[in-house]
Design brief:
With 326 residues, the chain is an all-alpha fold. Helices cover 74% and strands 1% of the residues. It has one domain. A two-stranded antiparallel ribbon has the order 1-2. The chain starts with 5 loop residues before the first strand and ends in a 5-residue tail after the last strand.
């Protein structure tokens, strides 16, 4: 799912119409929805370490124009020790720890589970905002936390009590718990990234995080290949990793930030519902994965909880910071 985009008031001067912004939000979230099926396909050939190294290497090449155009701002940040430490913390939270646990979890779980669980990041972000930023606790936020936790339990357990007989058994549950842990790191990225957003444009911050994560992913992938041997990539895996790099990491984020130049975060946030629902549907249709009554009930609770988070921020007149997970 990146940067921690500021999704508060829309930019006053923009050449993007409201209708164009809506189209960008719909298409961008639809592209993110395909990430889970694509990731599951690639993980049939690569480890999560090799997947992240290849995806972010390709994405960095495509994002070179963004790095070049923002080179002056970036140089200023790198010369400031405090800013440099913050950038390092952000890339570790958002593109190393988060992506490690997210795709390790996806390798063990299903695209349906991960697509639905990933949508709860907004709830974790609200929780960390209360703890870290001392933001006021709202009734909507508490209701969202309770409902979202219940939804996560139903998706992970596939029932009121854990069902170990389904696809993947206990390994699926472990994978789901990895994804939940990944969301905590992603929420930390979003919350702690607010200060950096005051100095760097969101797309540049995303690009720096993507490129900077290669300091970890490339050596880790080299060690993995040295130990396990060169992986055998299928044509479907190449297409999938190309999709994840070009469309989910570059095009979709550009669309998101472009749309937010014309509309505010409270307007844009509901479009994120497209991602988990379409992502889960693609897992069923393209991968033949199954869902249960508990999966459906959990999905409804998660969507309702996200709606409460959005409503609470809107009613309080607060700036809504949303990190699109993909």
């Amino acid at each position: 799912m990146s940067g921690a985009p500021k999704t508060g008031a829309a930019v006053a001067t923009t050449d993007v119409s409201r209708g164009e912004a809506i189209a960008l939000l719909v298409v961008g979230n639809a592209l993110w929805a395909g990430t889970y099926v694509a990731g599951k396909t690639v993980l049939g050939c690569l480890s999560f370490v090799e997947l992240n190294a290849l995806r972010f290497s390709l994405a960095t090449v495509l994002l070179i124009p963004v790095l070049w155009s923002g080179r002056a701002l970036l140089a200023r940040e790198l010369r400031n020790p405090a800013s440099l430490r913050q950038l390092i913390r952000l890339l570790l939270l958002g593109f190393v720890l988060n992506k490690a646990f997210e795709y390790a979890g996806l390798a063990l779980s299903t695209a349906v589970d991960v697509a639905l669980l990933i949508a709860t990041e907004g709830i974790f972000t609200a929780l960390l905002s209360w703890i870290v930023l001392d933001e006021p606790v709202t009734a909507e936020g508490i209701a969202a936390l309770v409902g979202g936790t219940a939804g996560v339990w139903l998706v992970v357990a596939r029932g009121l009590v854990p069902d170990l007989s389904g696809p993947g058994g206990v390994w699926r549950i472990i994978g789901d718990l990895f994804v939940v842990l990944a969301l905590l790191f992603e929420a930390g990225y979003t919350v702690t990234g607010k200060a950096s957003l005051e100095r760097l444009p969101p797309l540049l911050l995303t690009t720096v995080s993507v490129a900077g994560s290669l300091i970890v992913w490339i050596p880790a992938a080299a060690i993995t290949v040295a130990v396990s041997g060169r992986p055998a990539m299928t044509p479907a895996a190449w297409v999938s990793v190309g999709y994840m790099a070009a469309f989910a990491t570059v095009a979709a984020y550009w669309m998101w930030f472009r749309a937010l130049s014309a509309v505010d975060g409270s307007f844009a946030a509901p479009f994120l519902f497209i991602q988990p629902l379409l992502g889960a549907a693609l897992g069923v249709v393209l991968l033949g994965e199954t869902i249960t009554w508990a999966t459906i009930a959990g999905a409804l609770l998660i969507v309702l909880s996200l709606g409460l988070v959005t409503l609470g921020a809107r009613n309080a007149g607060e700036e809504l910071v949303v990190e699109p997970p993909a």
